[in-house]
Amino acid sequence: MTFTLFTRDAQPTQPLPYQLLTLWTDVTNAGGAVGFVPPVTAVDIRPRAEAHLTAIAEGRTRLLAGFTADGRLAATAFLALNDHPLMRHWAWLYTVMVDPALQGRGYGADLLREAEDRARALGLEGLRITCRGGEGLERFYASCGYKEIGRAPDALRVAPGDDRDEITMLLPLPPGD
C-alpha cells in the first residue's frame, strides 16, 4: 500500500476532520507519543484536533497529509509557522503520525522529507520538533537529519512516577539545499 503526500493550506473539508480523529486515536492507542497516553477515544482528542484545524483555517499552520490510494488518511504532520518577527525563519513540526498498520515501511521518513520540502518552499531556514524521551523517537529523527538541541528533564508526566524528558531537535535548512 502506498500513499501520496500533499499539503492542505485551507480549512480541511469532510471527511478529513473525522479521519484525523480516527488516525490520532489509533496512533495513540498503539503507543504513539502524540500528546496523549492510551487508552483514548476520539472524544478525548477532539479539542486538540479542533485547535489544530482552527490554526490551519487561520493560516498559522499547514497540514501535511498522506492518503492511501482509496482516500484514507494514513499520515499527518503539522507545520506551525512563527509570527514573532525574530523567529519567522523557522517553524515547529508537530503531531507527526503514521497509521500503525503502515509503520516501519519508510512512510514516516517520507513525511519528514515532505515537511522539509514544504518548509523550504515557504522560505524557512529550519524546522524544530519535540519528542518524548524513552520512546526512541530521537534516534528516528536523527536518522532524518535532526540534531538534538535541548532536553527538559522530566518535563512530561505520562503517568504517576513516569516522567519523561522533552527533547527538542532541529533540522537546519540552509539556503541553496
UniProtKB/TrEMBL annotation:
Record key words, sorted: Acyltransferase, Transferase
InterPro entries documented for this protein: Acyl_CoA_acyltransferase, Bact_Acetyltransf, GNAT_dom
All copies of domain N-acetyltransferase, residue ranges: 1-174
rRNA-binding keyword on record: no
UniProt keyword annotation of Transferase present: yes
Pfam families in the record: Acetyltransf_1
Transmembrane segments: none
PROSITE patterns (UniProt xref): GNAT (PS51186)
Entry protein name: GNAT family N-acetyltransferase
